[in-house]
Amino acid sequence: MTFSTSRTTRVSYTGERGPIFRLAFSTGLLALITLGIYRFWGKTRLRRYIWGSTRLDGDAFEYTGTGLEKFLGFLVSVVILAVYLAVVQLVLFALGLRFIVNPRTEAEVLAQLVLIYATFFAVLPLIFYAGYRARRYKLARTRFRGIRFGMIHGAGGYVWRAILLLVVSILTLGLLTPLMTFRLEKYLTDRMFYGDARFVQGGSWTRLYRSMKHIFIGLGLLVLAAVAGAVLATVAHAALAAPVAILLGVVGYVWLIVGMIYFRVHGFAYLTRNKRLGPEIGFDAAPRTGTVIGQYLLGGLMVAIIVGVVAAILGGISFVLFENRLVSGAEPPLALIIAGVVAYLVLLIFAGALTMALITQPVLAHFTSTLTITNLEALSKIRQRQHDKGADAEGFADALDIGGAF
Amino acid sequence: MQPAAASYFDGLTATRHVVIVSPSRDLRGVWLQGPSLGTQGVIWPLDRLRLLPGQAGEMTLTMVADTDDEAPRDPARLVISDPGMMDFVRATAPGLAKVDTRRGTYGRLALRLTGAIAAIGLILFVLLPRLSDQLANNLSPEREVAFGDAVVEQVALTLGNVGSSEIVCTAPAGEAALETLRQQLIAGQDLRYDLRLRVFDHEMVNAFAAPGGQVIILRGLLDEAGSPAELAGVLAHEMGHVQARDPTRLAFRSAGSAGILSLLLGDASGGFVIALLGDHLLSAAYTRDAEAAADAFAHRLLTETGIGTAGLASFFNRIDKIDGNLPDYLSTHPSSGNRAEQARAADQGAANPVLTDAEWQSLQRICG
Q1: d(CA B366, CA B168)
Q2: Which of residues 152-191 of B touch A (CB under 8 A)?
Q3: Contact between residue A6 and residue A366 where contact means Cβ atoms under 8 Å apart
């Protein structure tokens, strides 16, 4: 089959800095005032804005989730989590009492490590479970042209596959990471729907190694740094050893970090290019690593400068206002301490809203606006799907704090 | 009102219908006409129209309808971008911004909220205490001692700025005096653990019991205590806690609740838990019953060993007069005066001097 004659349509992102900053800042403040309860409604409003700013062929996406259902889902999830975590933690604590504290022999050190990882692995299934449920909920609340996206059940199968693949990836020192990335994405994608049309993940995991090339170069440089340092130190040029090793090491380290970002960006592009919706609709993605890194650096710099200036101004004002008190060294009154804590929290929310406007949204805009859809006309054959209750409405993800930026 | 072009999505297929929108003949709805909608077209009543939040320059409309969706809304959508038509809808549709909630939503919210609070309360105050007491009671003495060592180390790290060895006071003459005091406190007593006493160099007026028979004295207490008998009184009280395994149970209880906290906050390692335990022991929030039992134990021990309860009584009187920087177990109790009277009432017979003046002075200078 060839699609050379089919039309390609570019996705566009129309969100702007001002509105998303105001939205993120005001919902953050409301969440602070309501001791965090408003965050469910705040997240809903933010998603509505982002979904509504994403357009395909002139039509905007729609987010239909509600704050109330998120809050209700959270209430249920937090109780289940509390029971599970309290019991697991307490039992592990009792088991590990001898080892966790002051290990005296090597066997005890080993036992301590095992127990620490046991605690970690006790939460891991929940994290994967929550991850699947969160994606399913997001899809179930996304519509395009009035038609629902959706995802079928499958969190259980995802959990054991994810744990197995993670163990394999760790045991091979990360060498089989592409296998994990690919298989998990395929598991998720093959369960996703738009209306009655199913998404399918094609391609193969071995092709993901091309996206890892810069990670290997970075690692190679680090090995070279160690070898060069050792060799130069043993032969005559001992004075050269340290500078050469350090230079190679720094270059290798930076290369490795950039390589990891490259893997994320190109891995995403590869996986997207090999997705299909139904028999006819395809995708193409062309995000650029340089752009993404540039957006992070530039955005990070802007956030740091703005937050720094605002913090300095606030600090100056409070110093002028309370100079006498500070100099006299007297204990500040409680009201002043509370005001200070509140100012600090507001500054954090301010920084978070800036990050959203200057880093998260630009990166998101880059990924969406480099995405194209082939053969969009075939959409008209797609029919509506049933409403999915969404069950916990990502309450687990929220309770475990793995929701991500939005 | 001029008819205007718009996009209509029927909620059944992903087809975009290009439609012409105009007011219906009776002016009570908007009329959508287009080649794909048949000869009659579709009429949306104005009073059922709802505006979906969207971008400036266009209006996405839906209808309120009894569906099983997340909100009672029709899945169909109408997107208008003609300014005149947008003004018409805004002016004539009465419930555009209305939030529709299903019957029973608030009842469900109240039910879940109560349920969640009750369940968490049940876990924190019934399930966890039961379970942790059970686990604490089954702990072997050796494990308890090792655990106590770790907790004390953590407290030392919390209190001192540097390593744990820096904070332990070890002047030889002071240690000898402390040993003399220890011998008197355990003389003839059948104790569950081997009593170990140590002094930490910190200005807080406090002493606390750790799991496994350790009692830690903070230097502030040595400075504040007026006599060796007062110190012995406080130590006897802490020994009461040790004997009743209060610190172990407290540690287990906070481990359970800290488990909830630390994992929800994303700290999967045990470090946070141990740190929190140290903090809990310092502020030692024992129950009032546990405090009363420890007082009773102290009265009996002080009487039996011949130290006498007068010291404890005078210590309670003393801390009544000072304020601030006091450990919770001393300051939050309703009236130290009352405890002082109880201590004095328990006194039967004259008290032996606990330490000589010289010994007491070396003990007070144990931190150098």
Answers
A1: 10
A2: 153
A3: no
Q: Tell whether the model's pLDDT for residue B273 goes beyond 80.
A: no
* A29-43, A100-114, A357-371, B103-117: segment of lowest average pLDDT: A100-114
pTM: 0.76
Please judge whether B123 and A83 are an interchain contact, meaning their C-beta atoms are less than 8 angstroms apart: yes
CB-count exposure of residue A200 (10 Å: 0-12, 13-18, 19+): middle
**Cβ contact, residue pair A148, B132, below 8 Å:** no
Distance between CA atoms of A322 and A314, rounded to whole angstroms? 12
Over residues A154-192, the pLDDT tens digits come to: 999 999 999 999 999 999 988 999 999 999 999 999 999
Interchain proximity B13–A384, CB inside 8 Å: yes
Q: Is the pLDDT of residue A262 over 70?
A: yes
Where helices occur in A274-394 by DSSP H, the ranges are: 289-328, 334-355, 361-369
Does B54 reach chain A within 8 Å, measured CB to CB? yes
Q: A380 and B13 in contact by Cβ < 8 A?
A: yes
Amino acid at B328: D
B120 vs A89: CB contact, 8 Å cut-off? no
Chain mean pLDDT for chain A: 86
Q: Note whether B136 and B236 are within 8 A (CB).
A: no
ipTM of the complex model: 0.82
> Which residue in A48, A88, A101 is closest to B53 by CB distance?
A48
> Which residues, at least 6 apart from B347, have a Cβ–Cβ distance to it below 8 Å?
B303, B308, B309, B310, B313
Tell me the nearest-neighbour CA distance from A148 into chain B, angstroms: 9
CA A379 to chain B, closest CA, distance in angstroms equals: 6
The amino acid sitting at A91 is V
Measured at the CA of A239, the angle between CA A238 and CA A243, to 5 degrees, comes to 110
Taking an 8 Å cut-off on Cβ atoms, the answer to whether A60 and B55 are in contact is: yes
Residue that is written with structure tokens 């697991």 in the block = A88
Cα–Cα distance, B196 to B198 (Å, whole number): 7
Distance separating alpha carbons of residues A328 and A324, to the nearest angstrom: 6
* Percent of all residues in chain B with a pLDDT value above 70, rounded to a whole number: 83
**Strands lying side by side in the sheet with B207-210:** B196-200, B214-218, B207-210
> Beta strand pairing status for A8-13 and B17-23?
unpaired
Give contacts of B256 with chain A, Cβ < 8 Å: 86, 89-90, 93
Per-residue pLDDT of B6-51, as tens digits, reads 999 999 999 999 999 999 888 899 999 998 888 889 999 999 999 9
**pLDDT tens digits, residue range B274-283?**
555 555 555 5
